[in-house]
Amino acid sequence: MAVFEVKNLKYQYGKQGKEAIRGISFSIKEGQIFGLLGPSGAGKSTTQKIMTKLLPSYQGSVLYQGKELRTYGSEFFESIGVGFELPVHFLKLTGLENMKFFQNLYQSKAAIEPLLEKVGLLEDKDKLVGEYSKGMKMRLNFVRALLNNPSFLFLDEVTNGLDPTNARILKDMILDFKNKGGTVLLTTHLMGDVEALCDQVAFIKEGIIIESDTPRNLKLKYGVRKVDVEYQNKKALKKETFELEGLGQNAAFLNLIQTKTIETIHSGETSLEDIFIQITGDDLHA
Amino acid sequence: MRNGVYLLKSEMRRLIKYRILTISLAVSVLWMVLLYFLGTETARSFVGLFIAIDATIMSMMMIGASLFYERQENTLKPLLVTPVSVGTMITVKVITTIYVALQSALLVSLFVYFVMDINLQFIPLILLVSLVATVHAMIGFLLSLKAKDFTGYLVAIIVYAIFFAYPSLFMALDIVPTNLDFLLVLSPSHGAFIYLDQIFLIEGAYAYDSFIFIFSVGYLIAVTAVLYLKWVKPRYPELAVRE
Hints:
Largest interface: A-B, 28 and 23 residues
Mean pLDDT of chain A: 92
Number of domains of chain A: 2
Strand order of the largest sheet of chain A: 6-7-8-3-9-10
Oligomer: heterodimer
CATH architecture of the largest domain in chain A: 3-Layer(aba) Sandwich
Strand content of chain B: under 5%
Number of helices of chain A: 10
């Protein structure tokens, strides 16, 4: 069942403003991690703002649990958690005070301290957030999103500014959330996060979805069907490439792996980063 | 309702934590010292004007400071994705603005009443300060929506004061002839300066049932309602989401 069903969504900033979203459609199924990917200014954040009711004057239809988003009241916010791209805390309150402030606005309440412990902030809970590093603030952002035991999580660049260890902890927590039945919309340009987390992705550029599929299908679609083999030959490293089709009957390949010392074998499937660049025409590191 | 009360308590705690109440108290003390040295007769002419400045310009400053500071901390946006309604968020900010204006007005008034033996009518004072602070909080919201940053907001307040507050202040001080007050009849700050001034000037019963007074109060209520319904409430999310 689709938790969110977005149909022909359009959004324009101001009457004369730029049309940021130009008729996009997609659905997010229950228990799925859906990645919305695209270069800066593509419309990812605008789409998320519409879906979190921050921008109410959209055109088209956004169904949440089968009901138009516009018709929801406060009960909608009881069921969602939002992890913003930038830190969203009162700097002169402690980490724990910040979490208690937001949590008391909800009916359902998660245990705060275990969440802080999971993200490595328990020891710093009584420090003013103004004294936190950016990474600590981002981890606190993530805890804030989980305070009300949501069933749907919106996460915007959730691992931005985190070291690999803490990024891994958050990614594990997202997978744990999914495994317990939660659904996630992940907005990011970090393809490592997408590869690790997403069941389905949509590439958005200039307000239009230009490709949508599972990461695996995209890799198959955009990848090259070949195998690269690196092997030792008379103390020199050599490389040969074989077609993936009929590989099991390819005599040269079979001879190679039987007679030579193989160093590496790689299939020619492409990375999501390459697909991103190929589809959007934008370099992620530019 | 439960969320509104909780949000109000939290907002009051933040006023203390961010030292806004302390600054407001310091301004009140400054007024008291100044009034004391002016002497009873001169103080009687100025005390209402000092309170009017607090209820008008300071109320606008407080709303702007709160909004821009919270926008800088990015704490307006996450509140919009909680079950708290926009109306509740605005109401809480207005109530805290009224509280700060009343705290200042009552401290100064009690000081002149007990220390300087200046008579005044407390009930009209409380009602007028609350109304004036409310309408100026709404004007503060409106200017915040228009201003790009806090500097722009301060410029907007100065421009507002030049056109709507100073002329009334000068009229109350008899610098501008009172027969020109028809020019200021639509200024939301005019009533504040004229009526708050008179609370301290007239001893005993004052004709608060006069047509012009009732019209002024009605006008301030109407301005508050129009600003709230037409601009502040519909556009508050835009202010919060703007980055």
